[in-house]
Specification:
With 261 residues, this protein is mainly α. It has helices at 8-26, 35-62, 70-92, 98-115, 128-162, 176-207, 215-236, 242-260. The longest helix has 35 residues, at 128-162.
Length: 261
Protein backbone atom coordinates (compact mmCIF):
# COMPACT_ATOMS: atom_id res chain seq x y z
CA UNK A 1 0.00 0.00 0.00
CA UNK A 2 2.77 2.45 0.91
CA UNK A 3 4.32 2.09 -2.55
CA UNK A 4 1.42 3.73 -4.40
CA UNK A 5 0.96 7.51 -4.70
CA UNK A 6 -2.42 9.18 -4.54
CA UNK A 7 -4.41 8.36 -7.66
CA UNK A 8 -6.48 10.70 -9.81
CA UNK A 9 -9.67 8.87 -8.83
CA UNK A 10 -8.84 9.44 -5.17
CA UNK A 11 -8.36 13.18 -5.71
CA UNK A 12 -11.50 13.51 -7.83
CA UNK A 13 -13.49 11.57 -5.25
CA UNK A 14 -12.42 14.01 -2.56
CA UNK A 15 -13.22 16.91 -4.91
CA UNK A 16 -16.75 15.54 -5.39
CA UNK A 17 -17.33 15.78 -1.62
CA UNK A 18 -16.40 19.48 -1.60
CA UNK A 19 -18.37 20.11 -4.79
CA UNK A 20 -21.47 18.59 -3.20
CA UNK A 21 -20.95 20.81 -0.15
CA UNK A 22 -20.76 23.88 -2.40
CA UNK A 23 -23.95 22.91 -4.28
CA UNK A 24 -25.90 22.24 -1.08
CA UNK A 25 -24.88 25.58 0.42
CA UNK A 26 -25.65 27.37 -2.84
CA UNK A 27 -29.20 26.00 -2.73
CA UNK A 28 -29.81 27.47 0.72
CA UNK A 29 -32.22 30.11 -0.62
CA UNK A 30 -34.54 27.36 -1.84
CA UNK A 31 -34.58 25.56 1.49
CA UNK A 32 -36.55 27.27 4.26
CA UNK A 33 -35.69 24.54 6.77
CA UNK A 34 -31.96 25.31 6.77
CA UNK A 35 -31.05 21.65 6.35
CA UNK A 36 -29.19 22.07 3.05
CA UNK A 37 -26.57 24.59 4.29
CA UNK A 38 -26.12 22.53 7.46
CA UNK A 39 -25.52 19.42 5.36
CA UNK A 40 -23.10 21.39 3.18
CA UNK A 41 -21.14 22.53 6.23
CA UNK A 42 -20.86 18.99 7.57
CA UNK A 43 -19.72 17.77 4.15
CA UNK A 44 -17.06 20.49 4.17
CA UNK A 45 -15.86 19.27 7.54
CA UNK A 46 -15.90 15.64 6.41
CA UNK A 47 -14.07 16.55 3.21
CA UNK A 48 -11.37 18.30 5.22
CA UNK A 49 -10.87 15.20 7.37
CA UNK A 50 -10.60 13.11 4.20
CA UNK A 51 -8.11 15.55 2.66
CA UNK A 52 -6.09 15.57 5.90
CA UNK A 53 -5.91 11.77 5.73
CA UNK A 54 -4.75 11.91 2.12
CA UNK A 55 -2.01 14.43 2.87
CA UNK A 56 -0.90 12.44 5.92
CA UNK A 57 -0.68 9.31 3.75
CA UNK A 58 1.34 11.16 1.12
CA UNK A 59 3.71 12.63 3.70
CA UNK A 60 4.25 9.32 5.47
CA UNK A 61 4.79 7.59 2.11
CA UNK A 62 7.47 10.04 0.98
CA UNK A 63 8.88 10.78 4.47
CA UNK A 64 8.56 14.51 3.77
CA UNK A 65 6.08 17.34 3.86
CA UNK A 66 3.67 17.14 0.89
CA UNK A 67 5.07 20.24 -0.83
CA UNK A 68 7.56 18.69 -3.27
CA UNK A 69 5.48 19.10 -6.45
CA UNK A 70 2.91 21.48 -7.88
CA UNK A 71 0.13 18.96 -7.23
CA UNK A 72 1.16 18.54 -3.60
CA UNK A 73 1.31 22.32 -3.12
CA UNK A 74 -2.21 22.63 -4.51
CA UNK A 75 -3.39 19.90 -2.13
CA UNK A 76 -1.74 21.71 0.78
CA UNK A 77 -3.40 24.98 -0.24
CA UNK A 78 -6.78 23.26 -0.46
CA UNK A 79 -6.23 21.73 2.97
CA UNK A 80 -5.11 25.03 4.50
CA UNK A 81 -7.95 27.07 3.01
CA UNK A 82 -10.72 24.69 4.07
CA UNK A 83 -9.06 24.07 7.44
CA UNK A 84 -8.74 27.80 8.11
CA UNK A 85 -12.42 28.36 7.39
CA UNK A 86 -13.32 25.61 9.88
CA UNK A 87 -10.91 27.09 12.44
CA UNK A 88 -12.57 30.51 12.12
CA UNK A 89 -15.97 28.88 12.52
CA UNK A 90 -15.05 26.94 15.65
CA UNK A 91 -12.79 29.53 17.32
CA UNK A 92 -14.33 32.89 16.40
CA UNK A 93 -17.86 31.80 15.39
CA UNK A 94 -17.14 33.43 12.01
CA UNK A 95 -18.38 31.40 9.07
CA UNK A 96 -17.06 32.17 5.61
CA UNK A 97 -19.45 31.18 2.78
CA UNK A 98 -19.30 27.39 2.51
CA UNK A 99 -19.98 27.49 -1.24
CA UNK A 100 -16.96 29.74 -1.83
CA UNK A 101 -14.53 27.75 0.34
CA UNK A 102 -15.75 24.40 -0.98
CA UNK A 103 -15.67 25.67 -4.57
CA UNK A 104 -12.06 26.87 -4.33
CA UNK A 105 -11.02 23.64 -2.62
CA UNK A 106 -12.67 21.66 -5.40
CA UNK A 107 -10.77 23.68 -8.02
CA UNK A 108 -7.44 22.97 -6.27
CA UNK A 109 -8.20 19.25 -6.05
CA UNK A 110 -9.22 18.99 -9.70
CA UNK A 111 -6.08 20.88 -10.79
CA UNK A 112 -3.95 18.58 -8.62
CA UNK A 113 -5.58 15.52 -10.18
CA UNK A 114 -4.74 16.82 -13.66
CA UNK A 115 -1.12 17.44 -12.70
CA UNK A 116 -0.81 14.09 -10.95
CA UNK A 117 0.86 13.25 -7.64
CA UNK A 118 3.89 11.22 -8.64
CA UNK A 119 7.45 10.80 -7.49
CA UNK A 120 9.06 14.23 -7.30
CA UNK A 121 12.35 14.69 -5.46
CA UNK A 122 12.26 17.57 -3.01
CA UNK A 123 14.87 20.32 -3.11
CA UNK A 124 14.54 20.64 0.65
CA UNK A 125 16.38 17.38 1.37
CA UNK A 126 18.84 17.99 4.18
CA UNK A 127 17.36 21.46 4.77
CA UNK A 128 14.55 21.19 7.30
CA UNK A 129 14.21 24.99 7.49
CA UNK A 130 13.33 25.09 3.78
CA UNK A 131 10.34 22.91 4.56
CA UNK A 132 9.40 25.48 7.20
CA UNK A 133 9.91 28.25 4.63
CA UNK A 134 7.60 26.60 2.10
CA UNK A 135 5.07 25.57 4.74
CA UNK A 136 4.87 29.08 6.20
CA UNK A 137 4.46 30.55 2.71
CA UNK A 138 1.63 28.14 1.84
CA UNK A 139 -0.15 28.93 5.11
CA UNK A 140 0.32 32.66 4.48
CA UNK A 141 -1.23 32.36 1.01
CA UNK A 142 -4.10 30.33 2.46
CA UNK A 143 -4.71 33.11 4.99
CA UNK A 144 -4.57 35.72 2.21
CA UNK A 145 -7.01 33.65 0.16
CA UNK A 146 -9.40 33.49 3.10
CA UNK A 147 -8.99 37.23 3.62
CA UNK A 148 -9.73 37.87 -0.06
CA UNK A 149 -12.99 35.94 0.30
CA UNK A 150 -13.69 37.74 3.56
CA UNK A 151 -13.08 41.11 1.90
CA UNK A 152 -15.27 40.27 -1.08
CA UNK A 153 -18.04 39.24 1.32
CA UNK A 154 -17.61 42.54 3.22
CA UNK A 155 -17.87 44.62 0.05
CA UNK A 156 -20.97 42.73 -1.08
CA UNK A 157 -22.62 43.09 2.32
CA UNK A 158 -21.65 46.76 2.54
CA UNK A 159 -23.23 47.36 -0.85
CA UNK A 160 -26.37 45.49 0.20
CA UNK A 161 -26.73 47.58 3.36
CA UNK A 162 -26.25 50.82 1.42
CA UNK A 163 -28.99 49.78 -1.04
CA UNK A 164 -31.22 48.17 1.59
CA UNK A 165 -31.02 44.80 -0.13
CA UNK A 166 -31.21 41.98 2.38
CA UNK A 167 -32.39 38.97 0.37
CA UNK A 168 -30.76 36.60 -2.10
CA UNK A 169 -27.04 35.99 -1.75
CA UNK A 170 -26.70 38.74 0.85
CA UNK A 171 -28.66 36.65 3.35
CA UNK A 172 -25.88 34.02 3.17
CA UNK A 173 -23.12 36.46 4.15
CA UNK A 174 -21.96 37.27 7.71
CA UNK A 175 -22.58 40.70 9.23
CA UNK A 176 -20.20 43.61 8.57
CA UNK A 177 -18.73 43.87 12.08
CA UNK A 178 -17.41 40.28 12.35
CA UNK A 179 -16.22 40.42 8.72
CA UNK A 180 -14.20 43.53 9.52
CA UNK A 181 -12.82 42.19 12.81
CA UNK A 182 -11.77 38.80 11.47
CA UNK A 183 -10.30 40.47 8.37
CA UNK A 184 -7.90 42.46 10.53
CA UNK A 185 -6.87 39.31 12.39
CA UNK A 186 -6.29 37.40 9.16
CA UNK A 187 -4.14 40.16 7.69
CA UNK A 188 -2.00 40.26 10.84
CA UNK A 189 -1.49 36.50 10.66
CA UNK A 190 -0.50 36.78 6.97
CA UNK A 191 2.16 39.39 7.79
CA UNK A 192 3.67 37.15 10.47
CA UNK A 193 3.66 33.94 8.42
CA UNK A 194 4.91 35.52 5.19
CA UNK A 195 7.59 37.45 7.08
CA UNK A 196 8.90 34.20 8.59
CA UNK A 197 8.93 32.55 5.17
CA UNK A 198 10.73 35.52 3.59
CA UNK A 199 13.52 35.59 6.15
CA UNK A 200 14.30 31.89 5.68
CA UNK A 201 13.87 32.01 1.90
CA UNK A 202 16.04 35.11 1.44
CA UNK A 203 18.80 33.60 3.58
CA UNK A 204 18.80 30.38 1.54
CA UNK A 205 18.69 32.37 -1.73
CA UNK A 206 21.73 34.42 -0.71
CA UNK A 207 23.66 31.24 0.09
CA UNK A 208 23.04 29.83 -3.40
CA UNK A 209 25.03 32.48 -5.27
CA UNK A 210 21.93 34.66 -5.65
CA UNK A 211 20.17 32.18 -7.96
CA UNK A 212 18.11 34.13 -10.51
CA UNK A 213 15.51 31.37 -10.87
CA UNK A 214 14.17 32.05 -7.37
CA UNK A 215 14.36 35.85 -7.57
CA UNK A 216 10.91 36.55 -9.18
CA UNK A 217 9.01 34.54 -6.55
CA UNK A 218 11.03 36.14 -3.77
CA UNK A 219 10.38 39.65 -5.11
CA UNK A 220 6.65 38.96 -5.52
CA UNK A 221 6.49 37.58 -1.98
CA UNK A 222 8.33 40.66 -0.69
CA UNK A 223 5.90 42.98 -2.49
CA UNK A 224 3.01 41.01 -0.98
CA UNK A 225 4.49 41.27 2.51
CA UNK A 226 5.13 45.02 2.16
CA UNK A 227 1.58 45.57 0.96
CA UNK A 228 0.12 43.54 3.84
CA UNK A 229 2.35 45.25 6.41
CA UNK A 230 1.31 48.68 5.09
CA UNK A 231 -2.36 47.70 5.26
CA UNK A 232 -2.00 46.50 8.86
CA UNK A 233 -0.14 49.69 9.82
CA UNK A 234 -2.75 51.95 8.21
CA UNK A 235 -5.50 49.92 9.82
CA UNK A 236 -4.02 50.39 13.28
CA UNK A 237 -3.71 54.13 12.60
CA UNK A 238 -7.44 54.08 11.70
CA UNK A 239 -6.74 55.30 8.17
CA UNK A 240 -8.31 52.28 6.43
CA UNK A 241 -11.84 51.87 7.74
CA UNK A 242 -14.28 49.24 6.56
CA UNK A 243 -14.61 49.10 2.79
CA UNK A 244 -11.23 50.75 2.15
CA UNK A 245 -9.54 48.00 4.19
CA UNK A 246 -11.42 45.31 2.24
CA UNK A 247 -10.42 46.82 -1.13
CA UNK A 248 -6.77 47.12 -0.05
CA UNK A 249 -6.81 43.47 1.09
CA UNK A 250 -8.05 42.35 -2.33
CA UNK A 251 -5.28 44.33 -4.05
CA UNK A 252 -2.67 42.76 -1.76
CA UNK A 253 -3.75 39.32 -2.95
CA UNK A 254 -2.66 40.08 -6.54
CA UNK A 255 1.13 39.88 -6.02
CA UNK A 256 0.49 36.81 -3.84
CA UNK A 257 -0.94 35.04 -6.90
CA UNK A 258 2.27 35.88 -8.82
CA UNK A 259 4.43 34.64 -5.93
CA UNK A 260 2.47 31.41 -5.69
CA UNK A 261 2.64 30.79 -9.44
Amino acid sequence: LAAHPLTRDCLLGCASVFLTAAVLDGLANRDASGKLPTAGLWLLRGGWVLLTTMLAYQGLRTHALPIASAAEVLLSIAWGLSGLSLFLDVTFDHRLPTWAIAGLTTACLVAASLLGVGEHPSGATGKPLIAMHVGAAILAYCVLGAQALNSAAYLLQDRAVARHQFGGIYALLPALVPLDRVGAQLMGAAVWLLGLSLVIGATDWAQRDLALVAAPKLVAALVTWLACAWIVLQRRRRRLPGAAFARASLLAALPAVVALY
